[in-house]
Every structure is written in C-alpha cells, then in structure tokens.
Fold:
Amino acid sequence: MISVGLTYVFSAIYLSFIVSMVISINENDTVRRIARETLRRAGKLLGVLAIAAIIVQVLTFFSNS
Amino acid sequence: MVGHGPALRRQIYSRNKTSLTAQSQTTPPFSARLLGTVLVAWLIPGGGFLLHGRFWRGITVLGSLLLTFLLGCVLHAGVYWPVWSIHNEGFNIINNITFVIQMGSGLPALLSLLASAHPQIFFLRWAAADTSHALYDLGSFYLLACGAMNYFVVCNTFDRLFARRASREASQEVAR
Structure:
C-alpha cells in the first residue's frame, strides 16, 4: 500500500513538471527562460496541491468514518 | 498635429479601416502544407516542429510526451472505445470526454486503442487497458495529461509556423 501511495506522490510531482515544462516550451524561446518558467509554474502548482492535501488531511480528522 | 471635426473623423476611419484589413489578412491561407503539418503534429507529438527543422523543440516535446504516455501504459492504462449511446447502461459522459482528450496523443493513442480492441495482438499488449488493475485510474491520468498537452502543442505549432508568419507579412504590407 505504501508503494501505491508513493506512486501517487511521484505522479503528482512528475505530471506537474511535465505540464509546466510543455507550457513553458510553447510560450518561450530561450532555454534559460524555459527552465525558469518551468520551475516557477511547477512550484506554484505543487504549492497549491500541498495546500489542498493539508486541507483534505485536516478534514479527515473531523469525519465520522 | 491632430485635426478636429470631420478631418479627425476621417483620420480615425482610415486608421480603423487599415487595421481591419490587416486583421483579415492574419489568417494563413488554407493549404496542403498547413494541413499536413497539423496532421503530423497530432500523430507524432512534436512532429510538426521536427518537420520544419525546429529539432530541439520537437525532440523535447516528443521525449516528454512519449515518456508520459509510456509511463501511463506501464501503470496498466490504455485508451479504449467508450459507450456513446445514452440509452446504454454503460454510458458515462466522463469516459467520453476522457476518450476525446486521450486521443490527443495521436499515433500512440491509436495504437493503444487498437491494442484494447484486439488484445490478441501480442506485440501491442503493453498498450492495452487493464481496467481491473489498481493503478489503472492513475495511468489514465498520465494519458489524459499527454493528450491534453499534445492538443496544446498542435495549436502552438500552427501558431508559430503559420499564424505568426501570416500576421507578420500582413503588418509589413500595411506598413508599405
């Protein structure tokens, strides 16, 4: 079960980077700018995902089941 | 010095007319080359850029999207033909939308669709969907991301190789 959970965590990080990278490649021309925008976008996306994860975890403390 | 009254109105009218002419010329003419590029860009992620000699951009897109698709297949996901009839019990709108987005991957998605429809084709077994597997949903998400990104790349290929050139030529013509 732990390995399945880790697969989901790895997937969230990998897909965030891939989506950010493809968007950055489409919008920019220089490698430096693409790398910077990829990191910026992936960071934002992962940050929002982490906040969502914390909220869900906190809500589970109040669930009845 | 800007004129007043009718002179100013004439000036504004002529400026708007020029910009409208430029706008109507920004749409690139429909051609076999354009259609071929868009088709190749859809079938092979990044193929449109490779076809026009933009190698590093094409190879980066091809590598990243193909890797994503293959990882989805490793997680036992695949593209399969959904139920389209609303009268059928198995109809699910989410499956239909997922299918349309996953088909954005082009040739890999077509191969996976073929593998799911005909599991007896042994050399395509890696691309067949195994809906009973625990990681199938996660793998489907990989395929979904790959397809959606490729639609975006196809639009960008059209924009970079045709639309921007047409826009540049139109503005040069207006400047002349």
Q: What stands out?
A: Chain B has a mean pLDDT of 85. DSSP finds seven helices and no strands in chain B.
